Amino acid sequence: MERYEYFKQFHDISLADYRLLTDNLKPRSFKKGDCITVPGQVQRELYFVKSGVQVAYFDSGDKTYVIDFSYSPNLCAIAESFSFQVPSRYFLTCLTESEFECLSYEDLQTLMDQSRQIERLFRRMIEAMLAGMIDLHINLRALTIEERYKAFCRRNPQLLHLVPHKYIASHLGIDPTNFSKLYNHVKF
């Protein structure tokens, strides 16, 4: 029922609609380093993270740019690829062994046609994701590197021990050397 409580943060979905949704989920697992989605591939499934950490990123030249991390109980997807069924421009890779429950795009569309509650739940989850992306963009432009680091640590302290710091530094727009200094000297 942990996932039920997670969903209720976004929308007060009924237990019947929750069961309708979860009865359609299928288990899936990936090993550390496995790519879930690669550039040019359409993401056909939406993943509900049960365990593990994943990273969405793209490479440009010799640099890697981290877009986001996912972990339990959150959703895991290249949002625009899944939502619009278009080829991804990014990688979605497992940083650790990962367990999921997944739902195909077609099954989700059918469920949203069957239940306004499920449709509303996903709309609100997407709205929350959009708000989080806007906050990240504002933080990248308005906050100092120390403020960005502290904000990340408050939101995601567990990731400091699970994710290579170079990925967190990239996500926060901080040079890896400066990130290391922050990690070693700044308390949050």
UniProtKB/TrEMBL annotation:
Source species, domain of life: Bacteria
PROSITE patterns: CNMP_BINDING_3
Organism: Chitinophaga barathri
InterPro entries: cNMP-bd_dom, cNMP-bd_dom_sf, RmlC-like_jellyroll
Name assigned to this protein: Crp/Fnr family transcriptional regulator
CDD domains (alphabetical): CAP_ED
SUPFAM superfamilies: cAMP-binding domain-like (SSF51206)
Domain Cyclic nucleotide-binding per the UniProt entry, residue ranges: 9-52
Coiled-coil stretches noted in the UniProt entry, renumbered to this chain: none
